[in-house]
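Summary for the steering committee. One of the milestones for this cycle was to obtain a three-dimensional model of the protein with 1-deoxy-D-xylulose-5-phosphate bound, which we needed before selecting residues for the alanine scan. The sequence and ligand used are listed below.
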Amino acid sequence: MSEPALRLGVNIDHVATVRNARGGAYPDPLRAAKLAQEAGADGITAHLREDRRHISDADIEGLMATLSLPLNFEMAATDEMQAIALRHRPHAVCIVPERREERTTEGGLEVAREENRLAHFIAPLREAGCRVSIFIAADSKQIEAAHRIGAQVIELHTGAYCDAHAEERFEERDAELARLTEMATFAHSLGLEVHAGHGLTYDTVQPVAALPEVRELNIGHFLVGEAIFRGLDPAIREMRRLMDDARAA
Ligand SMILES: CC(=O)[C@@H](O)[C@H](O)COP(=O)(O)O
Ligand SMILES: NCC(=O)COP(=O)(O)O
């Protein structure tokens, strides 16, 4: 079967957030991952935060043992996380910035200022066969740096675009979209595979899905929220439909 032009990676972090609110085992992120696969996801994304506020080490082990979809393992650039990634060797490792006190991943990784360290950090991950992705803002300096350190993929942070839409700052939203558009083209011209994600919803997904250079969208928080109202399977299928329609238009 040929690969879809635009892949959907379903992020299951916030299934774990709900589970962790009470401890115990319910709802199970692995069950969500299996359901996502049946609903048309092309991959699963999970972020093992240093503070383990949602996904746990056991979740990653379970995903690696049972999942037949590729796992996009999001992690900070720390020795602990590198060791975990090298033990599991997921399909992709996405390096993200982390600040302990943040509510969510608020910005992209500062690659340009940490080029040397990050080049050494990702080398063993690449050697282990993981595709290395860097989660960054739509900024040419960061994209060039990601390219120089040897990343194969960049994921553009769509949070600013989504926040501007949600807060009805439409001029700013359009400017953010223009930036994402220009930087997706730029990254592609360097030979990087382009992904995008963070904060995407049914209202914001289509303009990003329509960008021809974007090969994968990673979407989680909105889908888990929407699942409360319509169920996870229909919530994912609707996202898939919107993405496919935007791509076909
Ligand atoms: C890097 C990223 O964007 C994801 O990990 C996602 O936002 C879900 O996790 P958080 O809500 O913990 O940031
Ligand atoms: N890397 C972004 C991601 O995996 C999903 O982000 P969100 O949809 O949970 O905000």
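Key point for the committee: Residues 62 and 244 are 30 Å apart (CA to CA).
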